Amino acid sequence: EQSDLSEVASLPDSVLGWLYIQNNRMRSAVNVYERLTNEDPNNADFNYYFGVALSKEHKKNDAIVAFRRAIDLRPGLAEAYFAKALLLNERGDGFESAIEAVKKGLSVDPQSAYGHFVSGFIFCSRGENDEAQKVLQRAIEIDDNYANAHYYLALIFLRREDDARAIESMEKTIDSNPYY
CA torsion angle for 50, 76, 101, 52 (degrees, to 10)? Predict the structure, then answer.
């Protein structure tokens, strides 16, 4: 009963932190979610959003810790696996760990277009174009309007000097999101 009351009491702060993230005010979001995770360290959402804010502030190692905490608290939080995978890949020393994290996220949510995109992005960033193409196409099968997946497919086709398919993918990118 006590924890239910603390969750209700912290709801306005959590919403404020989320609004800070949405409005790209990451330092403010970090401060809010740091306080919330200190007050309620067993709240997976607080840890997840703390990780999001930390990652946007380029505090990769701290963000990975927050995402791991969120996953430990709620193993079904696929977005935390995907976020952790992106950071491991970005850090440059965690390709195998990044792929493992994204696979775990996809085992939780196999219909996540975003998860398949993350997998494709990681493979693409490592030059593994065949594998990247497969998973990016899977993301598009799930959501044909996934601009990021179309964009990275265009990059793969450019690498292969397949201009016709690169143009087609880039046109789909722009059709999906004219502001891309």
Answer: -20
CA distance 153 to 162: 11
The position carrying tokens 């390709």 is 95
pLDDT digits (tens, 9 = 90+) for 133-163: 999 999 999 999 999 999 999 999 999 999 9
Q: What is the pTM of this model?
A: 0.90
